[in-house]
Amino acid sequence: MEIRVLKYFLAVAREGSITGAANSIHLTQPTLTRQLQELEKELGQKLLIRGKYRVTLTPEGMILRKRAQEIIKIKKKTEAEFQAISDTISGDIYIGGGETDSMKYIAEIIKEIQSEYPEIKFHIYSGNAEDVTEKLDKGLLDFGILIQPIDLSKYDNITLPDKDVWGVIMRKDNPLAIKKCIKLKDLSELPLLVSRQLSPKYSKESGFLDWFGDKYKDLDIKATYNLVYNAVVMVKAGVGNAITLDKLADTSTESKVCFRPLSPKLESGLDIVWKKYQIFSPAAKLFLDKMKKRFVNNN
Description:
Elements: H1 3-15, H2 18-24, H3 29-43, E1 48-50, E2 55-57, H4 59-83, E3 91-97, H5 103-116, E4 120-126, H6 129-137, E5 143-147, E6 155-159, E7 164-171, E8 182-183, H7 184-187, E9 191-195, H8 200-203, E10 220-225, H9 228-236, E11 241-245, E12 257-263, E13 267-268, E14 270-275, H10 282-295
Parallel strand pairs: 3-4, 3-5, 8-12, 9-10, 9-11
Antiparallel strand pairs: 1-2, 5-14, 6-14, 7-11, 7-12, 7-13
Helix pairs in contact: 1-2, 1-4, 5-10
């Protein structure tokens, strides 16, 4: 299975037409058709449904599209790493992470590196722990920034300073907004929007749900989310109240929402992680060295 043929396949998936794909990649239609037929034969699966006006993907074709995109990303990343091996440190660094105020520490190091090595480019991917670790494991990210608690058995890590405080974002006209903090019994009265990191599926082994005890299953959870922005939009619309970390949403005087911490206090630290035994590009190693100097060697 050649990279070239995977690119042909992705062109067809993108254009929805063999003719359109052939034009976009400057290939004759018979040649493209033959390459696709050989790919289906090689994989032993039908990948395309050829309609009168449009080509669509079979379920197997959808799987291949996802894998082909990942393979091509890894190829480009690998090529960039080797091109960066020179006297001048350059290249790309891929970092994934959840939403947290502690991201400011990463931003400080990025600014420092780019002032010294302007040819280094950073690519930031936002997602929850599940999204980030999946991409880490596939080699699509160099580093992940994960909100504790998280299973670190597959990774090396550096714990960052500070802890983020969990609480509830609610509309200011909510009767509970007059409280300074929200207790577990208060949550039972609220329709809730819950971070997927807070769900039993992702937190079962971490002990994170111990704060809720056996009451978690009784909560009125209307929806789950992985990034806060959309959750806050739903809070403003009156869908529910979001359990989330502090300092991620605008709770200023002009805002319709406010943040109230949980009581007793529930906090999470932050780790920057990378795969064990990972071989870094010069640029990624520079980033890691600066992280260690800032947060490990000075402790």
